[in-house]
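Quick check before the chapter quiz. The format below is the same one you will see on the exam, so make sure you can read both the input and the output lines.
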Amino acid sequence: MNISINVEIYFMIEASENFRVSTSQGTKSPYINPSAFPVLHGPDGILFDFNQGARIVLPARTEGKWRITLRDLDTGNILFQNENTGATVHSAKRFYVCFGIIVEDILPQREARIVFQHELNLKNKKVVIQFPVGTLGDTLAWFPYAARFAHIHQANVTCILSALIIPVLKDAYPELTLMSPEIAQEQDILADSYAMYCMGLFFDDKENVFQPTDFRLVGLHRTAAYILGVDPAEEAPKLALSDETRPIAEKYVCIAVQASTQCKYWNNPTGWMEIVAYLKKQGYRVICIDQKPVHGTAIVWNHISYRIINWHTCNSCWNDERERFDHHDFLWRPRHANTPRQFECTRLIMSQQVIAKISTAIHPLS
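Here is the expected output.
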């Protein structure tokens, strides 16, 4: 009898569509792919590892068959069971699953015998966690979950991330090994890794291959916890800064108003000016920490301008699973595009609503 639940019995390595970037040569994955074949050796020529899911290679045989059973040890489910004379099995799920593997030898006129049995155990194992290069806030939000994962499993975790971010995290997390994708490829870091997991926002992952639940349902920062199978409770990242002294003696407030797309801006044309005026009146110096003095595209350019929602307008398309975010369209707006209602969700947030929230924060007992 063959049983198959979310398992592929052919070899395939792929990246989620939303995390492919265009180049002059075509598309390129933001992650380092694992080797073509599993890197760990079992008996009788069997290969296996857990680099982007459970991967098992059963060598071809001319007599008898293999019977392979793949389980989820946490849920008790049999995910896959098949008899064959040689196959490559790759689980459909590429996020953390506590896999169990059983391979049996089946010969005519003889009772099947177990030749290989392995239960995923990350203790003291080499585990690689990859973060996409090009994101700052996402990586910082996800990083504590990687540390939590390493602590829970007592694994030897190597995190692959942008070289620009490594200096502020490396000394704060001495239990982790941090390296850039370039160094990781140079050292062939996946040549002997026991398991590998990829952090990311997988917009088109309708089959939940790379994430157990859509990030828009659980929160952008908490999606890393679900991918790694750890507690999603929030934890601020630890930063190791060369100078942690106060840069300004007087009371001050930092604002950062720019974003990667126009839909993430506060599109009220006078909103930020009114907020800055209010803060100054309260005795605060206002520091804008945006990367650029002006940012935008085409006919929309943003000068220096708290998450607040006006429920009287169209809102929450970012969290709508039916709407596919387009990274390449700065003016992306799936609802009311090219109409007077475009970006109304933030344009109609009035400064008085924001001031009320700020007032609550700086005068909590008033």
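If your answer matched, good. DSSP finds eight helices and 20 strands in the chain.
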